[in-house]
Amino acid sequence: MAAKSHANPSQATIAVRQPGQDNASRLILVGLGLAAAVAAPFVLYPVFVMKVLCFALFACAFNLLIGFAGLLSFGHAAFFGGAAYITAHAAKVWGLSPEISILLGTAFAGLLGLAVGALAIRRQGIYFAMITLALSQMVFFMALQLKFTGGEDGIQGVPRGHLFGAIDLNDPLAMYYFVLAVFLIGFALIWRTVHSPFGQVLKAIRENEPRAISLGYRTERYKLLAFVLSASLAGLAGGTKSLVFQLASLTDVTWQMSGEVVLMTLLGGMGTLFGPVVGAGIVVTLESYLAGTNLPVPVVIGAIFVVCVLVFRRGIVGELQALMARRRKA
Amino acid sequence: MSQDVILEARGLSKEFKGFIAVKEVNLQVRRGTIHALIGPNGAGKSTVFNLLTKFLTPTRGQILYKGRDITAMRPADVALLGLVRSFQISAVFPHLSVLENVRVALQRPLGTSFHFWKSESSLANLRDRAMELIEAVNLTPWAHHTAAELPYGRKRALEIATTLALDPEVMLLDEPLAGMGHEDIERTAALIKRVSADRTILMVEHNLSVVAHLSDTITVLRRGEILAEGPYDVVSRNPQVMEAYMGTGEVGHA
Ligand SMILES: Nc1ncnc2c1ncn2[C@@H]1O[C@H](COP(=O)(O)OP(=O)(O)O)[C@@H](O)[C@H]1O
Ligand SMILES: [Mg+2]
């Protein structure tokens, strides 16, 4: 059994479905996770946890595309960072409320996703990744050149404002629970998408696109919708992050940022719902820990990544699920 | 049995970088019949299937389905017209369960396939129909296993169930029995016979006893060209066919 699954690492982790048992243990896990998230700001720095939540949502959005539609985008920073600029500008220059500013950032990312997706979706595999990379680099250069983005300085001192005109987000706890709510909404939407009629078709396309076509599905339309959803949610994460740090900067639109989200997702386990959350938590924790040392951060993270990919080919959560499935079968 | 032509190819040709895989093929599939396409490996049978279902664009020629020119259509739209194919390489969705494999073929008419906000439980009422189809190909004990776990022959059976889920008017089966054990072959041949009652079937198949038994018309393809056509008795006595297909004496034993 173990040897068999080793020989074919791409084999799914789900073997025989036992919905009852799955749901029960999943509910317990979700409950524990929620309790931890609610308690977190009393134990850890709220800003740190908010950063984890933003990146976790970003990685979940990315995973919707790679894990459930089989599309590798190497330009997701454009949506994350692009939305950050729009949200920051809306809040700072236009003086809009935080929720409207974030929605504008999200909508921008969705439209950008529609444009990028429409150009990239006809290509497969590495060509798809290259087109998304090239287009996201265009967004990077625009961010560098345009006036409103503030060039190298970015947009600084973004006001967090009052949520719905009432709740002052300068209070760290209020801001934290707002970010947690945003994350949960985003995550719930992804969960729903994966378990929807649309999600079924998406998985079919991921598994065997010609077969999906032969069953009458115009697959490029489904892939495009998945791309737009993924880009919008990445934008939701980026816009929220710009209010957390009160900053939108070039860092968020670089190709390195696109790479980082790939890393988080693979580390945690692509195609699993919780993998990207775990992956984002690990990477953000490592980065903030390493930042206090003299070690070269990207090199260390890169090395850890290589080791993890070699040892846990399905990612951490993917391996755990495979282990549980094997136990259940035995 | 009505004898009008439901699917027709006119002067169909396909070149791959100068190599002619299919050459001037004229094919008429009559409504309600089982039509077999046979020929040695590399004869161009799968390419003809790809052309007819628009998975490949013909270099020259025309395809008519129910009198309508579908030469410029998209493959997904061809499927929606009722012309549905299977693949030579077993085409299932490996990490979906057997039930989900069939259900995904059933769900399109609901019109909710873009609804990412709807619950999967909205597909629950397709379950009975899916289980019926799964039963028809004797896969009931496997319904909740992932398709990847099925032995090869069972995957082919699942593929037939999935194709049948669309209730196609014309089914194109590319070597549906390949890789099946003796028992599965008999069962699947019987299934093909049964489902052919109210539809048309065009199939590529190497198992000549099955072809002889099932098909009304046989077209023999060699190096991309039609060599012979007709009922089994006629085709199997054609000396050119004997030479081309078997290399030696005669064409199989029915
Ligand atoms: N996509 C392709 N590109 C180049 N050559 C191809 C392609 N598809 C098929 N061929 C060639 O066309 C010929 C016919 O192939 P095929 O239709 O698969 O034969 P059959 O199904 O009768 O065994 C073969 O020589 C094959 O190598
Ligand atoms: Mg073939």
Summarize the structure.
Chain A is mainly alpha-helical and 330 residues long. Helix content of chain A is 73%, strand content 2%.
Detailed description of the structure:
The complex is a heterodimer of chains A (330) and B (254). With 330 residues, chain A is mostly helical. Helices cover 73% and strands 2% of the residues of chain A. Chain A has a two-stranded antiparallel ribbon with strand order 1-4. Chain A has a two-stranded antiparallel ribbon with strand order 2-3. In chain A, a hairpin with a 3-residue loop joins strand 2 (162-163) and strand 3 (167-168). In chain A, helix 11 packs across helix 12. In chain B, helix 3 runs parallel beside helix 5 and helix 4 (127-136) packs across helix 5. Chain B is globular. Mean pLDDT of chain B is 88; it is low at 248-254. Classes of the chains: A mainly alpha (330), B alpha/beta (254). Residues 16, 21, 39, 41-47 of chain B line the site of adenosine-5'-diphosphate.
Q: What proportion of the residues of chain A is helical, as a percent range? A: over 70%
Strand order of the largest sheet of chain A: 1-4
CATH topology of the domain at 2-90 and 171-176 and 197-246 in chain B: Rossmann fold
How many DSSP E strands of chain A? 4
Count all strands of chain B and give the number: 10
Oligomer: heterodimer
Determine the strand fraction of chain B and express it as a percent band. 15-25%
Largest sheet of chain A: 2 strands, antiparallel
